[in-house]
Amino acid sequence: MTTSPSVAVITGASSGIGAVYAERFAARGYDLLLVARREDRLRELAAKLESLHGINVQTLTADLAKESGMQAVEEALRSNERISVLVNNAGVAHLAPFTAGSAELHQADIALNITALTRLSLAALTRFQAQNSGTIINIASVVSLHAIAGSAVYSGTKGYVLNFTRGLQQEIEGSNVRIQAVLPAVTATEIWEVSGVSMDHLAPESIMTTENMVDAALAGLDQGEAVTVPPLHDLALWEAYETARLAIFDASRTGVPAPRYQQ
Ligand SMILES: NC(=O)C1=CN([C@@H]2O[C@H](COP(=O)(O)OP(=O)(O)OC[C@H]3O[C@@H](n4cnc5c(N)ncnc54)[C@H](OP(=O)(O)O)[C@@H]3O)[C@@H](O)[C@H]2O)C=CC1
Ligand SMILES: CC(=O)[C@H](N)C(=O)O
């Protein structure tokens, strides 16, 4: 009996980081379901990967900031039992002062970066938990850890992605399901032009290639990391951050206002 290959679903596969994840999962022998709005780009990538790797690639044109788009991908995740990987990669940034953006713009960014990622995780994880296998990769950002002027909404959404992922990781502990958060820093993709900040204004030495970012993130996944920060060389910094974060959480369970607040 021959078994069909597993399927990896990659959102935001029409460019940048998502397109490289598609190539890498194709090279690992997965069939693919590629999701984004630009159908021509998805089809071009699908044809290339099918011919290069002899795999089957489906495309799903969907606007994940809209209800109909979210539902279409949820339906695919629920109905296709061969899906074993979800890369929640589609995301958008508008880097400008908060009050310069409209309510509609902020709402659409939140819908894509938070609501779609949450709903697709629910659709995938429900089945992954039932079958006790499967992998979700959530693309957060180093701005999950820090916000600067002009990034309030974007950093806020990425802070959600990190904490949401941490919560899910607690819930699946002890199972064969894997959930990884990836925190890229500056990576050379189209997101910068969309965001309103040209890459020409960024320090060249801070910019990572998409290939290096994805390969490092997959190395982190293969090593069993829960949170992967591809460009961070000094692991001791991350360990100190994690230690302080958990220490603050534990030390906050006193039930008594700190002396500095007692008047
Ligand atoms: N590049 C960087 O410096 C960093 C990026 N990230 C994160 O990496 C992820 C990938 O971004 P990146 O590759 O850089 O940027 P790109 O702009 O190259 O890719 C974004 C992808 O998301 C898709 N997308 C955007 N809006 C929608 C929508 N409404 N519905 C469906 N798909 C959508 C785009 O496709 P289409 O337009 O065809 O719909 C595209 O495929 C994002 O989550 C981003 O926040 C995190 C840290 C750093
Ligand atoms: C676009 C990004 O997420 C990037 N990490 C940044 O440094 O702002």
From TrEMBL:
Cite a single Pfam family from the UniProt record: adh_short
Report the top EC class in one word: oxidoreductase
Q: Does the keyword Protein biosynthesis apply?
A: no
Q: Which reaction does it catalyse?
A: 3-hydroxypropanoate + NADP(+) = 3-oxopropanoate + NADPH + H(+); L-allo-threonine + NADP(+) = aminoacetone + CO2 + NADPH
Gene3D superfamilies membership:
NAD(P)-binding Rossmann-like Domain
- State the InterPro entries in the record: NAD(P)-bd_dom_sf (IPR036291), Sc_DH/Rdtase_CS (IPR020904), SDR_fam (IPR002347)
CDD domains, per the entry: SDR_c
Q: Which GO terms describe its molecular function?
A: 3-hydroxypropionate dehydrogenase (NADP+) activity
Q: What is its EC number?
A: 1.1.1.298, 1.1.1.381
Is the keyword Oxidoreductase assigned to this protein?
yes
Keyword entries, A-Z? Oxidoreductase
Q: Tell me the protein family, please.
A: Belongs to the short-chain dehydrogenases/reductases (SDR) family.
**Function according to Swiss-Prot or TrEMBL:** NADP-dependent dehydrogenase with broad substrate specificity acting on 3-hydroxy acids. Catalyzes the NADP-dependent oxidation of L-allo-threonine to L-2-amino-3-keto-butyrate, which is spontaneously decarboxylated into aminoacetone. Also acts on D-threonine, L-serine, D-serine, D-3-hydroxyisobutyrate, L-3-hydroxyisobutyrate, D-glycerate and L-glycerate. Able to catalyze the reduction of the malonic semialdehyde to 3-hydroxypropionic acid.
This one is known as: NADP-dependent 3-hydroxy acid dehydrogenase YdfG
Q: What is the lineage of its organism?
A: Bacteria, Pseudomonadati, Pseudomonadota, Gammaproteobacteria, Enterobacterales
